[in-house]
Sequence to fold (221 residues):
Amino acid sequence: MNPVHISHRSLADEVASLLQDNILKGEYKVNQKLPVEAKLMEIYGVGRSTVREAVKTLVNSGFLRVEQGKGTFIEDNTGMNEPLNQRLKRASPQDIMDVRQMLEIKIAEKAASNRTGNDISKLEHFLNKRAKAADQNLPEECIEAHINFFQVLADASKNDLLSGFYKQFLLQLKTEMLENMKDTSFFKEKRDYYQNLLDGVLRQDAKKAAFWSGKINGTII
Fold:
């Protein structure tokens, strides 16, 4: 489960990222007023609409707040209030991969211990659907089945916090796969690994499930 990460960011996203880095570095203090639009346009060399979109992004992320008639102020310079989906957008591909690899191994381990018969039926269904779509070279169907397989695996862990956290990564992964995968060659690789992972969960063998999860995501060579 290790596709190439290719970033597609708008100019507004780039400006938001630069401004956010400046906030996190302490160049702006909490409750300090942000420079006016014209100054931000000059600093970043962009137009008014780009600045407004970047500021809107940071307001939604919890870094800035707008006070009507007064201006825009720094709300947080630690990043603690930033929603996870926003944090993932600015994280490096390697950082995302590192966290996802750790989560996947723990999820496989917990799923093997806590899965139900219904979980197994769903996992078998999506794994079979993934394989059939791969053989028919249907990338969108493959991606859908692939993501659903890991969503069910996460649910089978019976840990709502772990499952909910991991699904934020799956949402991003699905978007990237749909953008970048034009055929099903990726889904034909390591096919036996997925079957071995499923077998470990089926047999409630936590060590086996964790091992094959690590083999799939490249943690275990």
In short: DSSP finds eleven helices and two strands in the chain. The first helix runs from residue 11 to 24. Confidence is low (pLDDT under 50) at residues 1-8.
